[in-house]
Amino acid sequence: MSLQQGLSGLDAAAASLDVIGNNVANASTVGFKRANANFADVYAASLGVVGAAQIGIGVSVGAIQQQFTQGNLTTTDNALDLAVNGGGFFRMSDDGAISYSRNGQFHVDNQGYIINDQKLRLTGYPVSVTGAVIPANPVELKLSASQIPPRATSDPLSGDVTAALNLDANASVPVLAPFDYTNPSTYNFSTALTVFDTLGVAHNLTTYYVLNTPTPPTGGEWTVHATLDDANPQTLAGNMVFDTSGALSSTPTYTLPSWPLSTGALTPWSPGVIDFAGTTQYGSASTVDRLTQGGYATGSLVGIGVLSDGLVQGRYSNGQTRSMGQVVLATFADPNGLLNLGNNQWSATSASGSELIGAPASGSRGVIQSAAVEDSNVDLTRELVAMITAQRNYQANAQTIKTQDEIMQTLINLR
Predict the structure, then answer these.
(1) What's the confidence (pLDDT) of residue 380?
(2) Quick one: 364 and 382 in the same domain?
(3) Among 61, 77, 336, 377, which one is most buried in terms of CB atoms within 10 A?
(4) Residue 81 sits in the same domain as residue 50
(5) Last residue of a domain, which of 248, 267, 292?
(6) Domain carrying residue 132
(7) What is the pLDDT of residue 45?
(8) Kind of pairing between the strands at 321-327 and 311-316
């Protein structure tokens, strides 16, 4: 029986060395998960033999179990290199055949799909034309290099032009009248803002502020004039009136006038509504606290970034960003039940359970780090020590076979 026990020990020790060797070989493989060889003792069932009298007949390999512990993260120069910090697997598609990976070394193919080195396509949630994520069935993520269309300042999606100012309560009524935008002596303060028409053409909107009534004793009253591209001055309907505390006592919103354009856009054109909420009249120099508008020109794609929640965002030459999709992560009830396909890929089985899909940072899923990869979780020091142990086990089992052989030789030599 010792020969059988020794042989089983040799097989088990050899399997352990195979697992250790595979771990060592993949010490630099991105996303690799080390494995352990689990062993089980073997007993023969025999009638009439009590438990205390049983002698084992060797050892077997119970399972080769991968360890899905977190690997270290290493930064790279590629924004599409993605690392999962926490639980979950990237969901990859090969013409609809789904597999899973922790290797986030991705790039873009000639069709715009995000792929790995095996040409498998990364999947995620699609987005609407406005960039809103649609949490439907994941699709193969595809990046578009198309320009984004312009948005006019007057577009409802742009919101109002906002202007939060402080107009000097110590100002005096201009000595010269009427208002002439080319003569600073006819107004007290001015400010300029770039706005965009329906074709995305930039225009210079300048507003001028003329004090009509000094502050004491009832507050100040100001007239607002505007020009577009330093021409065709027009007056906003309604004056800005302040109370004695320096706050606006009149409505803070005014409709901007319309101007004829020479750019081919629809004419006449108005930038929309200007909102003066937050404007004050205090005893300090006139200044601009906030001046914004939501329009922009057309833009070309200049870069790609991935946020921690998996949102893939395009950066455009007009300063805008737009979501192009959201990377999803898949989790499983039992990751050790996944079938290893090689090339850092796994597939689901009945033992692993069905995939549970969600956005990064949701549930038990980790977060995404862009321009980084997850290193192999192999600890070379640990593996080399385990290799020494497995080698000693192999030698010891060989020694039991050698000893049994010597005993049998002694028996054969008896006369």
Answers:
(1) 94
(2) no
(3) 377
(4) no
(5) 292
(6) 75-144+300-374
(7) 66
(8) antiparallel
Q: Is residue 151 part of a domain?
A: no
Instruction: Give me the number of domains the chain comprises.
Output: 3
The answer to whether residues 323 and 398 belong to one domain is no
Clarify whether residues 194 and 283 are in a common domain.
yes
Indicate if 334 and 353 belong to the same structural domain. Answer: yes
pLDDT at 216: 62
Q: Quick one: 287 and 165 in the same domain?
A: yes
Collapse the DSSP code of 52 into the 3-class scheme (helix H, G, I; strand E, B; otherwise coil) and give the result: helix
| Residues 6+ positions from 51 with CB-CB distance below 8 Å | none
DSSP code for 5: H
- Report which of 24, 29, 26 is spatially closest to residue 373, judged by C-alpha positions: 29
What pLDDT is stored for residue 47 in this prediction?
A: 55
The pLDDT of residue 265: 57
Residues present in the chain in total: 415
Report d(CA 123, CA 297) in Å as an integer.
31
Whether residue 6 is contained in a domain is answered as: yes
Residue that terminates a domain, selected from 292, 318, 353:
292
In-domain check, residue 172: yes
Rounded distance between C-alpha atoms, residue 273 and residue 256, angstroms: 6
Question: 148 φ, ψ to 5°?
Answer: -90, 140
**Residue 62's pLDDT is what?**
87
- Is there a single domain that holds both residue 21 and residue 111? no
Residues 320 and 200: their CA atoms lie apart, in Å, by: 13
> Which among 409, 390, 374 has a CA at the least distance from the CA of 88?
374
φ and ψ of 67, to 5 deg? -110, 105
Q: Which of 205, 221, 228 is nearest to 291 (CA)?
A: 205
Give the pLDDT of residue 116: 95
- Tell me how far apart the alpha carbons of residues 158 and 155 are, in angstroms, rounded to a whole number: 5
DSSP state of 252: S
Question: Would residue 150 count as lying in a domain?
Answer: no
Mean pLDDT by 10 residues, the chain (415 residues): 79 91 94 92 68 75 90 94 96 94 95 94 91 90 90 93 94 90 94 94 95 75 93 90 90 91 74 95 94 94 93 93 94 93 93 94 94 95 93 88 81 76
Q: Report pLDDT for 266.
A: 61
